[in-house]
Amino acid sequence: MSSERSIAIFSPGLLGGSLVKTILQRLPGVEVRVWARREEAVEEVRREFPSVIASSSIADSIRGVSLAVLCMPVQHMQGVALQIADCDLSDDLIVTDVGSVKGSVVAELEPVFDGTKACFIGSHPMAGSQRTGLAHARGDLFYQSACLITPTEKTKREDHDRIRSFWIKLGCRVREMTPQKHDHCVARISHLPHAMAVLTTLAALRDDASVLDNSAGGFRDTTRVAGGDPAMWAGIFLHNRDEVIAALQDASARMTELLEMLQSMDEEALRRFLAQAKALRDLLPAV
């Protein structure tokens, strides 16, 4: 049984649509509302989820809701949050998000709800795909994925417990950390890999895309995430700029090491380099 009576999803893309599917499956009896900016998207939600209340009105979508989840790109969250804060809000409303950056998001959104009936607590379910849009939404997207929540000193214990409970009931493994720790960790395990996939794709293909005719699984696997939404990822990189720069600088230093080994034909150093990478990669838990 969920403690939430009504949940509003703001923006029905891959993550928002997957949240709707998961809530309908795992939290029966909870009212689900979906806000979309465009009427075409509202109609798509109504066709896909007949039991869901869909609207392009923020005021209608938030009325009476106990939990709201922002699922748009991080650069658009503050604008939507400001509009929500101007509405008639429930006394027990918690606003959270699914964004891949927490430092700037929490700094921007927590003050928006100061002085209102609502509060903001950052969340980041580590789930997704290079595909985008409601058509690719999945009801099992969050199952067994880590969800990082970032309460602050302003977070009330009862609100903290509700957010934990929500994500656990959706099948997530919940971890807690500060927004700053979150951004450091995610820069290394998500943002840097995306940047490296982009760099690998450009280095391999920009001058001669015809080499794809000879590609195999390794190239496909290594560059898969480079197929993600460019606008969304530009926002992520810019909002977590300092941590992404630090991670890229470390990657650049490792690239320089590799170049020097190849230029000097230092096979022993190269073997140690590759062995260290393998040993570290082998620490990754099996899925």
List keywords for this structure.
50% helix, 9 strands, 287 residues, alpha/beta, 6-stranded parallel β-sheet
Describe the protein in words.
With 287 residues, the protein is of the alpha/beta class. The protein has 11 helices and 9 strands. A 6-stranded parallel sheet has the order 3-2-1-4-5-6, sandwiched between helices. The radius of gyration is 21 Å and the shape is elongated. The model has no long low-confidence stretch (mean pLDDT 94).
Cα radius of gyration in angstroms: 21 Å
* Biggest sheet strand line-up: 3-2-1-4-5-6
> pLDDT average, as an integer?
94
Helix content: 40-55%
* Number of beta strands: 9
Q: Globular, elongated, flat, extended or rod-shaped: what is the shape?
A: elongated
String of helices and strands:
EHEHEHEHEHEEEHEHHHHH
Please count the helical segments: 11
Strand content: 5-15%
Structural class: alpha/beta
End-to-end C-alpha gap: 29 Å
Q: Which stretches of 5+ consecutive residues score pLDDT under 50?
A: none
User: Biggest sheet, open or closed, and with what strands and sense?
Assistant: 6 strands, parallel
